[in-house]
Design brief:
With about 210 residues, the chain is mainly α. The chain has helices at about 15-40, 50-55, 65-80, 90-105, 115-125, 125-135, 140-150, 160-170, 175-180, 205-214. The protein has a domain at about 15-140 and about 185-210. It is about 55% helix and about 0% strand. The radius of gyration is 18 Å and the shape is globular.
């Protein structure tokens, strides 16, 4: 049975992928409305990774957050699975702080959560470890290594034809070359989840970066 908040259109603990998609869209819509009212230039799609991994890999509750969740997401899952350009690492934690502020100010932060200021302070406290873990190739999953190689070769991951061509080229390479991409063994503690997303795409680019690219 679906569970909804007071407004009746958000199930914070969806039980299947369809319910998750609805909750994901509802949270992004509310986030966009809140940000616009505050005059913030933020992209609602920056919520995609924290929502996706909270539901698929952690406890499944989208609005209940504790420091342990923050550590699991940004010190384990992000280094293993999420591709982030070095000059955007600061933005990742800044976006998380904005997300927790949004949940608190809109009354969506679940009562089982730790206070938003505690969560935000913890994000600041783990910044150094987050950067170190993101730079550690031993923490990267096989998928992240493969798609990082594709990006290094100029493949646009949103171009299916280009991705298919890259996979065909990669599989045709000598074993030694393929092993070089996967050469560093993954950490023994690889996160497991309810479902595995297709590939490991980069996080959505920030609005500022999109403007620069234009």
């Amino acid at each position: 049975m679906a569970r909804h908040d007071a407004d009746g259109d958000l199930d914070p603990e969806p039980e299947d992928e369809d319910a998750y998609a609805e909750a994901n869209a509802a949270l992004k819509e509310r986030f966009a409305t809140w940000a616009a009212a505050k005059g913030l230039e933020v992209d609602p799609e920056t919520l995609e990774s924290p929502l996706h991994y909270k539901w698929g890999y952690l406890d499944g509750h989208l609005t209940r957050w504790r420091r342990a969740d923050v550590e699991e997401l940004y010190l384990e899952l992000y280094p293993a699975k999420v591709i982030v350009e070095d000059d955007e690492l600061d933005e990742v934690l800044a976006e998380a702080k904005t997300f927790f502020t949004f949940l608190a100010e809109t009354g969506l932060l679940d009562e089982g959560s730790e206070p938003a200021d505690v969560l935000i302070g913890h994000l600041s406290a783990i910044e150094g470890e987050f950067r170190a873990n993101m730079a550690d190739p031993q923490r990267q999953s096989v998928g992240k290594r493969l798609w990082s190689q594709a990006l290094a070769e100029g493949v646009a991951l949103d171009d299916q034809a280009a991705v298919d061509a890259f996979i065909a080229r990669f599989n045709a390479r000598p074993r030694a070359q393929r092993d070089a991409v996967f050469g560093v063994r993954p950490s023994p503690r690889q996160p497991q989840g309810r479902f595995t997303p297709k590939g490991t795409p980069p996080r959505p680019s920030s609005p500022k970066r999109r403007k620069r690219r234009r």
